[in-house]
Write a structure and sequence with these properties.
Helicase, Ruva Protein, domain 3; 3 domains; 10 helices; 5 strands; 50% helix; globular
Length: 197
Amino acid sequence: MIGFLRGKILNKKPTSVLLDVNGVGYIVNVSLSTFDKLPAEGKTAELFAHLSVREDAMNLYGFFTGEEKAIFELLIGISGIGPKLALGILSGIQSRELVEAIQANDVPRIVSIPGIGKKTAERLIIELKDKIGSVTGVETTGVPAEAYAVKGDAIAALMSLGYNSKKAELAVSHILSKSPGLQLEEIIKLALAGLNK
């Protein structure tokens, strides 16, 4: 099995990268968060890899961190979630944010990921809550579930104003990392100020 790739980036786009590994070109499917961390074309990239083998296809999936790969493998282990949807989930939310949402039973936050409905979100929480922290090494930080709910509400509010989920999540996370005890209205106000600079 292929578990790791290092090679020169020949071409990259938000959903995939063409990697030259010792003269062999590998097409590797990537999440948006991995894509954002990749160096420029012509530079060397290192990716943790997962090879998905089906009767009609073999697809490679690449991840910037081992943590993201571990979460991907947990996701595809859930009935009804294939590699494409798992990659979509990781494109719609940062890995650490997903772990926190699952551990805090934050269904609204998970539902805010494009392509995820309420039933799928609930299934994610039920099936992964006891596994995800130990596999990824990310444990809950002792922050109460209400704090995660406020964070999710702030992100949802920004998305309803037209900001994409990734920008909204980064803005809210940045504010809460500096001032964790803020009320919802204050978080939204500060996030808007930061996003409109």
